[in-house]
Structure formats: C-alpha cells, structure tokens
Specification:
Layout lengths: L1 E5 L7 H15 L3 E6 L4 H8 L3 E4 L7 H13 L4 E4 L2 H12 L7 E5 L9 H10 L2 E4 L2 H9 L8 E3 L14 H8 L6 E6 L8 H9 L6 E6 L5 H10 L6 E5 L5 H6 L2 E4 L9 H8 L4 E3 L16 E2 L5 H12 L2 H18 L2 H17 L1
Parallel strand pairs: 1-2, 1-4, 2-3, 4-5, 5-6, 6-7, 8-9, 8-11, 9-10, 11-12, 12-13
Helix pairs in contact: 3-4, 8-12, 11-13
Length: about 350
C-alpha cells in the first residue's frame, strides 16, 4: 500500500511521535509511506531525520492555499489511504476529496479526549467524509459512541505501541552519571510536552509541599508553558531542586534515572506514550483518570491514581511512594508486566495495517 499521513500541527508530542513510529513500522513492512505537513513544523524535520518521505505543504491553517495544495498533490500522486490526524488537516483533506474524481479513502485518527463539536459539519466530517475512525484508547472510542452518537462499527481503538525491547529497566546510578544528575537523591520525574493540561503546575505545587531536600524533580520536555513554569519554580524558591531538562531526543536514560514517574494530566489524554514507557522501565507511576489513562494504570495495582488539579493529593501519593520501597517495587514490576502485555509496538502495527487494508480494499 501507499499510506499517506497528514499533520497540520506545528508542535511536538505524543501525537507526532506516534505518526512517525507508525510510519517507520509500515516502511519496515514493505509499504510506501508519505507525510504531508507544514515546513515549519517539528515533525517535518523529524521525518527527514528518520528517513520518512515528507512533503511540505501550507496546511498549518485552514486556507484556500492549503486546500489547493492538497488537491494538486492528490491529483498527481496515487495513494491507497489517507490517514489524517489534526482538525485542520482532516478538514482540508475531506474538502479536497470532494473536489477529486476518485479520492482515496480517509481514516481519521483521534489522539485526544477533547470534546468534539455537535454540529452538522463535524458530523459530516466524522461519519461521511471519513471511512473509519481510529482512537488511541477505548475511553475515547466510547466517548464518540455515547456522546456524539457515531456508529461503533466504524470506530476502532488502537493504543500507541511502544518498543518493549528498548524501554527496559536500567542501572539508575549509571543513567544519572551519564546525564550529569545528582546520584544520592530521590528523583521524581515527568516526560511531557509543556502544555497546560499536562498538569506541570500542579506537580510543582505538590513538589513544593515535600520538605525533604534530598528529593528532586526533573521535568523533561518543552512547550508553550516553559516560561510560566520557570517563573513558578523561581517564586517557590525551588530552582536548586527542580531540573528543567528541555526536549530530549532519547528519553530512555532519563526514565531509567528516575525513582518515581508522575503525569498529572487533567484533559485531552488517550493512553500517553511517556506513561507506558515509564511503566516498561518498571517505574512506579502516579497519574490521573483522564481520557484513557486507566486502560494502562489501575489504582493500587499498576500505579496510583489521584484526582486531577489536586496538589495535596498528588503530594500525598508522592510521599507515600517515597517512604515505601516495597510499594515502589511492587507497583513498578506490575506496571512493567501489564505494559508488556498490552502496549507492544507489533500489536499497534498489526491492528493499523489491518484497518488500512480493510478500508483500502473496501
């Protein structure tokens, strides 16, 4: 097959990483894969570095120029399927299909749990223009069925797959020495794009309640909230115990350096990749019940669940793990086993390939 992905987002996070991971997997299986995206987007440059064919088009915003560019590209290139990912590119592709004589079928991947508008145009986009919908978690699938009334037979949940052979527990002290981190501290960590709904501000508030000067926090990732978070850290005089590491091309050593992983999201989640990666590294995790997170983390079994936007509850969960080594070990080992069973890369590629084949042959 020739699989075409479109992505209008300029940012970088789990959604963009999934697109490229899936593209690399399909290339390895013998398919042709092309990505259309804005030249100024991070994914454009990442695709080049990973050997994924990428074409720059002006599709960062809904515009006649973007629509024309997609129409012209599809006229000149035959593809088996189009997989759209963000709202803007989904609309542009759907409208372009209306202007083509024999348009390729469209699959819409829904990565986040944000509410979908209940209006006629949006219903057309999801039920008529798109041949199939893929969600990154079952909770997102059920949301589309129960809230939006979309047909269950046209929606499939396929969580993002992680390379279980690569994300493994490591030597914590060795990882810290490699990264230049302090060795003789408890290290709490988060890996996430610095967006408001990832809950970093609540994590910092909770961390400020921990009096132990031998407990540090490392924040891996970058994004629009960076300056606000730096200001919050400075205002609470925590600069000496909080490390803002920025974006890291390889997050594995950072995960292996941590004692505890925290993801206090309060909106928009499917099954977060970084959360599953942390679980595969046998880290005890603290998170919330937002989106499809509970498909990975069950309270007291594979991690601890706290109420979103509640620094007090978050601090209590961190203190509990910090003071109980046996609990950290039990939750970490259980998390690793569960993630290995449910969130492997091969399973995701098998399911996506089956959807592509079914829709492409229909």
């Amino acid at each position: 097959m020739h699989i075409l992905h479109t992505e209008s987002s300029l940012g970088w996070g789990g959604q963009e990483i999934r697109i490229l991971t899936e593209a690399e997997g399909m290339l390895a299986r013998g398919h042709t894969v092309t990505l259309l995206c804005p030249r100024e987007s991070t994914i454009y440059h990442e695709a080049i570095s990973r050997g994924v064919a990428v074409v720059a088009l002006p599709i960062a915003r809904k515009s006649p120029q973007g629509l024309y560019a997609i129409v012209q590209w599809l006229k000149n290139h035959r593809v088996s399927i189009v997989n759209t990912h963000s709202s803007t590119d989904s609309w542009l592709v759907a409208l372009a299909a209306c202007l083509l004589r024999n348009p390729p079928p469209i699959i819409r991947t829904r990565h986040i749990s944000a509410a979908i508008p209940d209006n006629a145009p949006t219903r057309w986009l999801y039920t008529k223009a798109s041949r199939h919908i893929v969600t990154t978690g079952e909770a997102l699938r059920q949301q589309l069925i129960a809230v939006n009334g979309y047909s269950s037979g046209r929606i499939t949940s396929i969580p993002t797959g992680i390379d279980t052979g690569r994300f493994v527990p490591g030597d914590r002290m060795k990882a810290r020495r490699k990264l230049g981190l302090v060795e003789n501290v408890f290290l709490i960590g988060i890996v996430a794009t610095l967006r408001s709904w990832k809950g970093h501000c609540y994590l910092i508030e909770a961390f400020a309640k921990l009096a132990d000067e031998h407990t540090w926090l490392v924040i891996v990732g970058d994004g629009p909230q960076r300056e606000a978070l730096k200001k919050q850290i400075a205002e609470r005089d925590l600069d000496d115990r909080i490390i803002m590491a920025g974006n890291q091309h390889d997050v594995l050593p950072w995960l292996q350096a941590m004692d505890i992983f925290v993801l206090p999201s309060y909106a928009n989640e499917g099954v977060p990749q970084a959360l599953v990666q942390a679980m595969l590294c046998a880290l005890p995790v603290i998170t919330t019940s937002v989106g499809s997170i509970q498909e990975a983390v069950q309270h007291e079994q594979t991690g601890l669940i706290v109420e979103p936007k509640n620094p007090q509850a978050l601090a209590g969960a961190m203190e509990r793990l910090l003071s109980d080594a046996s609990l950290r070990q039990r939750l970490g080992e259980a998390a690793r086993r569960y993630a290995q069973e449910r969130f492997g890369l091969t399973a995701m590629l098998d399911k996506m390939e089956a959807i592509f084949t079914e829709v492409g042959d229909a």
